[in-house]
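Batch manifest line 622
LIGAND: zinc ion
JOB: complex structure
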Amino acid sequence: MILDEKFVNTIKLIALKNAIEFDNNIKPDVVISRAFSFSKFIIGDNHDLKSYIPEIKAIVSELQKLSVDDKKELYADILSRKNDYLRENEKYRNGKRHQAPEGKIKQKTEIDAAISKPKEQLLEFGLPILDGAVEGNVITRFPPEPNGYPHIGHAKAAVIDEEYAKKYNGKLILRYDDTNPLKEKLEYYDAIKEGIDWLGVKPQIIKNTSDDIEKLYDYAKKLIRKNFAYVCDCSPETIKKNRINSIVCDCTLNSIDKNLRSFELMVNGNYSKGASAILRYRGNMSSLNTAMRDPTLFRIIKGGNHPKVGSKYTLWPTYDFAAPIEDSLDGVTHALRTKEYELRNDLYYSILDNLDLPKPKLIEFSRLEFEGIPVSKRKITPLIEQGIIKRWDDPRLPTLMGLRRRGILPEAIRKFVLSLSITLSETKPSIEILESFNRKLLDPISPRLFFVKDPVRVFIKYLDAESVEIKNHPTLDMGKRRVHFENIIYISNDDAIRIKIGDTLRLMDLCNIEILRIEQSGDDDKVGNPDNKIIYALNKGNEVNHKIPKIQWVSEKDQIQYKILRPLPLYSGDKYNENNLVIDTGVAESFISKLQTGAPFQFVRYGFCRIDDQTTAIFTHR
Ligand SMILES: [Zn+2]
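JOB STATUS: finished
ARTIFACT:
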């Protein structure tokens, strides 16, 4: 059996993605099932798919041999430089690109064919077409509740909502879903807007659900008049118990008129009988779908001071009621929400049906969080409240301000989110995939500088020059800097511990040295390295020698004390990771103080970082 070439390419693509999602381990069964689900778009129906299994397994085992980095590189390349490839591959096919490493380009060509093939099904890589979308008429909405700082999960929703609106020349609405005055704060509205702006997401309309409370009351009355809703003043415990046991309470027997009068009293804050009265939807108390067991539509919330409407209302709609009506009134055509709402879809459509309102199409996607870096308020908010983490922009947090402070670029988040598509699988992607997108963007804009951790002093004999000019980027023109020195430089203790008398090594962009002596220094000379040692060396000129180690250095005459914060995962499994912030101290070239706060750069042999303040950087990633 010879497989269609395009189908083979698709299989490879699926397998690479699977490897990245599962610790470099491609699961043949997953690849087979996904390949089958794609097959009809590529090779059509009428195939005995089972007969393809041995070949799919063979392809998987070939790809499995690639190193984890090769897989990731291939994958990230495809996604972040898709257009470049198309051009490169075009040239390659036309025989104009002679120096290209053939194997790699060929692989990319195949994969590119795979990702460009199902175009009739996919808009961008992995983003499926919207069912029933009409060019120019698509309206999506991003509806965050302003009860916390926006995080990577919000970014996923906002980017996908916007991307769809853009693809179909439609509109994106940012709607603050603000119906709980006890939890919402002005600070959070602002933080969400700031996060959205930073991501580059541009909604055409911005509004609040709290603008429409009166309208929502009107629709509630309409439901009551049609006998689809009733006021229930049973105790919360009774309601809970009845829901579990599918028991209908006596409140359901009240007349429409009585329900209307009770609701009116609730609206006006005058309902005295049972402080916890709620308006319930007449669903089906014996439904297998528990979301349909007469859910709450309105509840009384007293004592709140809503950031937008103050104390004007005490009766507030639930998400279950507000979301479908707001979506429908806003003209939303496609409402995307995370998979945990799936059980509530029946309720959403049922409410709109009973109110004769147009129904948006609901689409689910999996929520996004990284392994060890949860987004749930339950896990994050206590850390802030207890002062374990001081600020919402802490680089250990998955908040957008935390990711920004860490040095993640908004464009990397966008590319990363689109690479995940809107799959329903609940796997947590590795943050390394986001980092690989980010690295490609940072590389051409980050000057290369030197930092030595735990510095060890090196005296160099016959270092005659007084300064050296060093390029800020090895291949791009990012200017040069002049570093002044006398005869003392620092190297990192990590390098010093490997050095023996008689060794020759290269101080990058300076000279080669030969190690003459290694001594313990007196207390006066203590500079920070744990062993407190001093190295004496001899300048051995500038001859290029690829066999000797190349290390970075910092001139004693041209240094500042410097600190790097390295964030690690917040949690290890369910347990808070006590050691989630490493602080590396040492000396850096004084040139670094010329960079502005927020500027990205790379410390050679250390990694990409972002300036946090005059003497501190945050480690972004390798
Ligand atoms: Zn009741």
